[in-house]
Design brief:
Length: 418
């Protein structure tokens, strides 16, 4: 077996203020080969490290403000995952700091990962891509983390990778640690098949810097939050996806392409609801290299969202009422998107009905009225194309829009080369 790389790729956040909480170690390797975990991140990037300890610092300024934080196992997580996950949390708890993570056992029916529902959970999902191994989400209110979730992939061969090592890495991201550049670190960006890692001095130094024992949570942020839950979509959330791919040909790795400037993920002027690109750009980035860039139509949608992202973000910052409307729309769409992304059964029956499409059109019209002629043109074409999917599930609609081969489908042609 080979080695896989875990890394985070620059991405722009949707105006939801949503950001990514972390990574995981994956997954199924090609025999004798070396794969790279590619991230499609629906938010601002975590930045690359420079120096061992410094790279494990909380570079975002977001952290938990209550301790302990309680997490739950979903009923569908296999029993054999519970003990390694608890052991990983205990390793972080053993580091002298004022923050702890404790298991509350199996969650009551209902809570799932990737859903800011008041429960921090460890889940088990049938990811749509067989090379996906783990995903992490953190929910925030202002600068305070209120909930984190992560899910193991049910398609991964867990006889190859150590569950506890993966959980240590994931919990490190729950605590707001970035990747390091030292191979001995749990937060290092690589894991080998069969490799077992424990917390290094750099890993420990990171959590001690974020949650120093001598201060305690009383000196934490003043914007509220709870140790184990709350937050909801109103405060922001994050999604990260990782998949294995060949690194033999850089052209096959769209994540190596530069995404452009990063939008601040939690602009106070826009908080709590800046969400046009939560439905648009963030979704496009999440699929980048996973779905969207695999088709010509997908590349057109990515290009459209990217060229208008900053303009739309500025509109939301200036008009919080429009941002709140976008946030409400995003909340409504999330069950369908989670079903498409993670096979979450709660969104299985989500349909693009007339009321939902009318809500999209209202939002598009309000944004267009404040935007440039180019934005108005693309919004009209996109919302019109989406309206043609009425009555379909979100999966069927996305598939149809990505595979449409008609001339100038959706009117989203990329600018001609000069």
């Amino acid at each position: 077996m080979g080695r896989v790389q875990v890394r985070i790729v620059p991405a722009r956040l949707g105006p939801a203020g949503d950001r990514v909480g972390g990574t995981g170690a994956s997954e199924r390797l090609q025999a004798g080969g070396r794969g790279k975990l590619r991230f499609a991140v629906a938010s601002i990037a975590l930045f690359s490290s420079v120096g061992v300890v410094a790279s494990a610092q909380n570079i975002t300024g977001r952290n938990w403000c209550d301790t302990p934080a309680y997490y739950y196992f979903t009923p569908r997580l296999p029993v054999e995952f519970r003990s390694p996950t608890e052991a990983a949390a205990s390793d972080w708890n053993a580091v002298p700091s004022w923050f702890d993570l404790f298991s509350e056992g199996v969650a009551p029916s209902g809570p799932t990962a990737f859903n800011c529902d008041g429960y921090s959970v460890v889940d088990y999902f049938d990811f749509p891509d067989s090379d996906v191994g783990a995903a992490t989400q953190c929910c925030t209110r202002g600068t305070t983390i209120t909930e984190c979730d992560f899910a193991y992939s049910s398609r991964t061969d867990w006889s190859v990778f150590d569950r506890a090592t993966v959980a240590r890495h994931e919990f490190g991201h729950w605590l707001e640690l970035d990747h390091t550049n030292a191979p001995a670190d749990v937060m290092y960006g690589y894991i080998d098949a069969g490799e077992i890692k424990y917390l290094s001095d750099a890993d420990k130094a990171g959590i001690q810097q974020i949650y120093p024992l001598e201060t305690g949570p009383e000196n934490c942020g003043s914007d509220g939050g709870g140790g184990g839950g709350g937050g909801g979509w109103s405060g922001g959330a994050c999604l990260v996806y990782e998949s294995q791919g060949s690194i033999d040909d850089p052209a096959d790795d769209p994540e190596d392409q530069e995404y452009g400037p990063h939008q601040p993920w939690n602009d106070p002027a826009c908080f709590p609801m800046c969400r046009f690109t939560g439905l648009g750009t963030a979704l496009a980035h999440f699929f980048r290299g996973f779905v969207l860039l695999r088709t010509a139509e997908g590349r057109k949608y990515v290009a459209m969202f990217e060229r208008h992202n900053d303009e739309v973000a500025a509109i939301f910052r200036a008009h919080p009422d429009i941002a709140r409307e976008a946030g409400s729309l995003m909340n409504d769409f999330m069950p369908g998107l989670r079903y498409y992304l993670f096979a979450d059964p709660e969104g299985e029956n989500f349909v693009l009905d007339a009321a939902r499409l009318a809500a999209v059109q209202r939002l598009a019209d309000r944004v267009a009225a404040l935007g440039t002629a180019a934005l108005r043109k693309d919004l009209a074409r996109f919302s019109g194309r989406l309206a043609g999917e009425q009555g379909k599930t979100i999966a069927d609609a996305i598939g149809s829009m990505l595979e449409d081969r008609t001339p100038d489908a959706a009117g989203l042609r990329e600018p001609a080369a000069r």
